[in-house]
Amino acid sequence: MSYENPGLPDVVVEDLILYRLGGGFYRTYLATTGLIGNERVLEFGCGGGTMSRHILTRLGGDGRLTCLDISEFWMEKAKRRLSGDSRATFICGDITASPLLADDAFDMILIHIMLHDVPAADRKAIVTTLATHLAPSGKICIREPTDRNHGMPPSEIRALMRDAGLVEVKGTAAASSSMMFGHLFSGEFRRP
Ligand SMILES: C[S@@+](CC[C@H](N)C(=O)[O-])C[C@H]1O[C@@H](n2cnc3c(N)ncnc32)[C@H](O)[C@@H]1O
């Protein structure tokens, strides 16, 4: 999948189906994460900022959101949509290649429908690096598709989190299939 040069269908689906019409899909999930509003949140793999927009709606004046993506194309889109909000910061790059973030910097890291697209061999380094950026008692919230043809198994997510030193607080495999992404697993993993 090309993140720098996405095809027109991907751009249209992202804008029309997810950004303009998909609010409920994002808000419903966000409501389950326990976000209070004063947290320092990292959205890892923020894409065009669809989820980021809903995170900002839930954050209060003292909350902060860092939007990080490896793709300049999607990062520019997120900036165009959200950069008027002074609580949001935007970082483009590969967290495993160079230090982009401070240690212990985040109360919550959100990984939403992106890790399954990362090559399997790269996932461990990413999750291990992300865990170093959690504040004590901070948590990673993750929602990923799990179907064989488009997704990753919950057992792999659990193993990645465990190997990064995180403890599972909750993990739920949705019984019903979502229209866009098939079956989804949602999990919460805390730094002890
Ligand atoms: C399907 S989009 C998800 C966007 C957003 N999280 C959402 O739910 O609307 C996946 C995003 O992950 C980004 N991505 C893929 N690999 C990445 C990596 N190693 N580091 C940061 N972002 C990455 C892609 O560039 C893309 O914007």
Tell me what you see in this structure:
This protein has 192 residues and is an alpha/beta fold. The protein has one domain (8-190): Rossmann fold. Helices cover 33% and strands 28% of the residues. It contains 6 helices and 8 strands; from the N terminus they run H-H-E-H-E-H-E-E-H-E-E-H-E-E. It has helices at residues 8-20, 23-30, 50-58, 72-82, 120-132, 154-163, and strands at 40-44, 64-69, 88-92, 106-112, 134-147, 150-151, 167-173, 184-190. Strands 1, 2, 3, 4, 5, 6, 7 and 8 form an 8-stranded mixed beta sheet that branches. The longest helix has 13 residues, at 8-20. The protein is globular, with a radius of gyration of 15 Å. It starts with 7 loop residues before the first helix and ends with a strand. 36% of the residues are buried. The structure holds S-adenosylmethionine. S-adenosylmethionine is lined by residues 3, 18, 45-47, 50-51, 68-71, 74, 94, 112-114, 117-118, 126.
